[in-house]
């Protein structure tokens, strides 16, 4: 059996970032072969991923990138199990690595992003698995991308919630302030769609049925139930679709009115909201 020296352990730690005892154990098992030891450490990460697959990930960090021309945004959320892990350097470095890969490859889906290869030959997923092996926690990625005439973004102060919002018909308006205000609205008020046309029909049907049941329980006549339920559905649209929501900073206007006031005809085409633990 090959003798494992402190220098060997330090070399593997430099190569992988794994803990000293994990490196020593991997080198011993690999009989001093560094490539085999690296594979063993990677498998250790996969074992942890499998073992902790059902664990809740309620902590983490959100990062965003908007292209220089303002037409495309990438939003990354890397979730972990504990607040302490979310604050360590190699976790934050991994968040940036994932975001950089998203920008570099212009990945359109999470699957494409996780499969993207880095300069070291490893995929983004393999880097995530490696870090799971080092920290002993489950990690989970959420990814969103958005293209529009102008994309605005916002990361909440807790770094656990973020938004991309697409605007059109911006004209010559400076969208920095209004874009941030709309993105903040989305973080705070959690709209389900841009407007009522974007609400899933199944959701609308469920709201109608709930409205009927509530009216029936209140003793309203059967002939009135449909009209009452429709009124409740319209209230749902007002409270839960972005353009119809009252602006949280000034409830005398809706988001649609805020945008139109900023630049005639300006509106939202789409938005992406990600949140860790909420």
TrEMBL record:
Q: Name one Pfam family in it.
A: EF_TS
Query: Start and end of every Translation elongation factor EFTs/EF1B dimerisation domain?
Result: 74-277
Q: A Gene Ontology MF term for this entry?
A: translation elongation factor activity
Keyword Cytoplasm in record? yes
Alphabetical keyword list:
Cytoplasm, Elongation factor, Protein biosynthesis
PANTHER family linked to this entry: ELONGATION FACTOR TS, ELONGATION FACTOR TS, MITOCHONDRIAL
Member of which family? Belongs to the EF-Ts family.
The protein in question is named: Elongation factor Ts
Its taxonomic path starts at:
Bacteria, Pseudomonadati, Bacteroidota, Cytophagia, Cytophagales
